[in-house]
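Students often ask why we bother encoding 3D structure as a string. The short answer is that it lets us treat folding as translation between two languages. Here is a chain of 285 residues written in the first language.
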Amino acid sequence: MIIRRYKIGSLFLMNICSLFFFLTGSVLSQSSHSLPNIQFYQLNTVHGLTDNYIYDMAMDKNGFLWVGTGEGLNEFNGKSVIKYFKQEYPQLQNDYIKEILCDRKNRMWVLTNPGDVTMIDERRKFHRIGIYNESKFIPTRWMLQTDSQDIILLTKKNHLVIKPDVEVESSDSLTLDDFEPLEVQHADSLYTRGYLQVFKYDGDTYFFVTDDHILRVNYKTQTLENVIECKDATLLTKWNDNEILLYHKTEHQLKSLHLDDGQYSFPFANIRDQKGNLISTEITQ
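And here it is in the second language, the structure alphabet:
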């Protein structure tokens, strides 16, 4: 028997015909001490979504779901979809939404193509983030979020974090002066490489995946800790202590990579179904 799993694009993006998620009567937060009845709802263009191609999602601290598509930004409040386009909100700069994060202050950070960032403050006012050095635009490659630093903008030059004393609400836009560099030791090679995947391992650790290596960065210690030789890998999830489950694209195998010594184990080898047949796994794009 073959179980097929489908990879979500080169940057783990999914072509979704419809979006399913759990709602407990509404998307508003509820007490963790109660066990409400779980209901399934469907959300797609029929229900107001701007597009069925979903690139990222994030929940804000009000319990509202933000959905990024190639045709605009959406905010679902449990009853209806509010749509945001660059025509009405020019600070958004582009309708192609690549990434969405919610920071500790309930501000939404939105990364659009080709590297523009917009912040939506807690009052839901839009602010353009224009990062320029000597009139030259510096695109943001990825937005990261860690326990120690909160939101980090990764560019081809450095890491940037917003200064703690910046008064966002009083300004329509933010500039490079509102940010400060985050020094990461041994990270010079990190900025110029191309990555197939950027993977959050835990609260302060990210993995950056190339064709043949995995770079491990600890943002609490602000250090590129090590570079692991690993070819044709798609990282899937944290697996036990100091391990990560990955899929080897050329060998078509699920493996557990031990991060301390770089050795592999095969946690799903020789697993059989109820009829005694070996179960194999294939992930395709």
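Translate back mentally: Residues 271 and 279 are 6 Å apart (CA to CA). Keep this in mind for the problem set.
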